[in-house]
Amino acid sequence: MRLHLLALNPTDSVTHGFLPAAARLGLDVTLLTDQPAAHRRAYEQSVADGGKLPGLTLVGCDVKDFREVIGRISALGRTAPPDAVFTNSDHLQPQAALAAGYFGLPGKDWRAALDTKNKALLRRRLAAAGADAVYSAELGPDDEPEALAARGLPFPCVVKPREGVAGEDVVLAEDAADLVRRCHDIRRRRPGASLVVEEYLEGELHTLETLGDGRTLHTLGAFRTELSPPPHFVEERLTLLPALPQPHTRQVVTQLRALGVGFGACHTEYVVQGGRARLIEVNYRAIGDQCDLALADVLGIPLFEHILRTHLGEPLPADLGARTDGRARVEYVCTDRGGTLEKAPPASETERDGVRLVYRPLRGTGETHPLRRTNRDYLGVIRATGTDQGRIDQAVEAFLAAERWEILS
Fold it and tell me: pLDDT tens track of the chain, all 409 residues?
């Protein structure tokens, strides 16, 4: 069987999650991407490190254009017809859904994929369904932020790219003048981008991780997310909460169903206000930044295989057999300034006192980067798993105290 996988830049989710899972399922993989050379390097490095990956055919393609994706798969289909079309990219969910539908394959509803990707559509869809009403206004490329600021918005408010990811250019505006300035700042970096301005949903940030096959919807787990101080929203730490259900799980699931979400993996972020779960955003794919690897480890299930099986048309079992006693902490080592990384620890993996701790560098020594106030400022990631949260926290703190990351500005 052949999996057609759409991707932009290489990610750990694909290289260390979905590709090894495809190998275990005996799938051949055609990877369509606009960055084939980067994926070839990631693939070869993983194999050199002992990774067991499937046979891989790399195909250059403008994967952001669903017409190019469908045309390329059709041409390839003369020798390698698709059995599944899949992506774990935020940017490519509508394209993958449309391609799967074109070839009569299982997949997500393209409308739900588009509504969750487009933050303005997300708010309108939720409000129309009576699920939640969050003040939101869309600022098109030709719209002036000064006119929007004069409407009497609720301040503070959040401005963000309508189709952004990774917290990039998501910022808190304290008043009308601050909003105008923030909008112009973002437009200088993103000419022609549409923005969304919405009310600030303050509160402790939680996630809900789900997996469905279009009929059965499993809740896999939930994380508590700790962010950098406003005005930016950089994720610094995620801690797996005790076994589901959390008090507001059902409310979140109800809102997901109102959006038509229920096929494959979904990563949802929300806060609780006045006893209500209020969605921040819905990412219609598996959680990333190595949290998916930690989740699979803690649950003790073939998570990546389950996700791929749904796209092959296989129903999920009524009981995934997941463990309920697992705990995890994912910690991001984040720089507070731009410059060249002069010193950093190498990749490592240890197991002590019931805690498995894995460290992976995300930036090589000698690399120079500006400060972006997003997850692109991460230098490395620590994921620690076990059954005792206290021991997990101690292991992470000990690692951070023992290692050094040095940036030369």
Answer: 999 999 999 999 999 999 999 999 999 999 999 999 999 999 999 998 888 998 899 999 999 999 999 999 999 987 778 999 999 999 999 999 999 999 999 999 999 999 999 999 999 999 999 888 899 999 999 999 998 888 888 999 999 999 988 778 999 999 999 999 999 999 999 999 999 999 999 999 999 999 999 999 999 999 999 999 999 999 999 999 987 777 899 999 999 999 999 999 999 999 998 889 999 999 999 999 999 999 999 999 999 999 999 999 999 999 999 999 999 999 999 999 999 999 999 999 999 999 999 999 999 999 999 998 888 999 999 999 999 999 999 999 999 999 999 999 8
Residue 81 backbone phi and psi in degrees, to 5: -60, 145
Total residues found in the chain within this entry: 409
Q: Where in 187-296 does DSSP place strands (E)?
A: 195-199, 205-213, 217-221, 223-227, 235-240, 263-273, 276-283
Give the SS3 label for residue 132. coil
161 forms bridges with which residues in the sheet?
Answer: 195
What SS3 class is residue 355?
Answer: strand
Per DSSP, the three-state class of 170 is coil
> In this structure, are residues 202 and 166 in contact, taking their beta carbons and an 8 Å threshold?
no
Q: What is the pTM of this model?
A: 0.95
d(CA 153, CA 200) in angstroms, rounded, equals: 11
Rounded-to-integer distance, Cα 316 and Cα 237, Å = 31
For residue 141, whether the previous peptide bond is cis, meaning omega lies within 30 degrees of 0, is: no
The tokens describing 229, both together, are 């101080």
> Can you give the C-alpha Rg of the chain in angstroms?
21
Q: Measured between alpha carbons, how far apart are the two ends of the chain, in Å?
A: 50
CB 393 within 8 A of CB 407: no
Which amino acid, 263? F
* 204: DSSP letter: -
Cβ partners under 8 Å of residue 377, min gap 6: 234, 334, 335, 369, 371
81 preceded by cis ω (within 30°)?
no
DSSP H or E stretch at residue 67: helix 66-76
4: nearest Cα among 91, 90, 82: 82
Packing angle between helix 291-299 and helix 303-311, nearest 10 degrees?
100
